[in-house]
Amino acid sequence: DNVFMEQSKGYDNKELHVGDIVRFHSPYPDEDPDTIFIVLWSYYDPEGKSSRAEVVKFDPVLKHYPVIQKWFIRDLERVPKVSPELLRQIALFMKSKLGNAIISKLIV
């Protein structure tokens, strides 16, 4: 358990905020390592065990409702470099695909 705690300190996942762009830092073999998510909500457990974030999967060619999931924050990290083009695509995605329910969460 301590080994895990040591490892998890290396990932940039402290204080995730609404709108942060994250990914799995250690995706499973069946997961696409390039999949990114936009944080909608985060909860930090004082014990640190079940801190989690509600995220929407970024999918520029989404044909149906967006996929919203809850993941453990310890499994996520901020995407270190986001190109201006990707930021533009994400902004369009958030505006066009998600409807008012999610957008209202993002307006602070």
Describe the structure.
- The protein is an alpha+beta fold and 108 residues long.
- It is 26% helix and 23% strand.
- It has three helices and five strands.
- It has helices at 2-8, 84-96, 99-106, and strands spanning 21-24, 37-43, 52-57, 68-72, 76-78.
- The protein has a five-stranded antiparallel beta sheet with strand order 4-3-2-1-5, covered by helices on one side.
- A hairpin with an 8-residue loop joins β2 and β3.
- The N and C termini lie far apart (37 Å).
- Residues 1-8 have low confidence and may be disordered.
Q: If you compute it from the alpha carbons, what radius of gyration comes out, rounded to the nearest whole angstrom? A: 14 Å
Strand neighbour order, sheet with most strands: 4-3-2-1-5
Largest sheet report: 5 strands, antiparallel
- Gap between N and C termini: 37 Å
**How many helices does DSSP assign?**
3
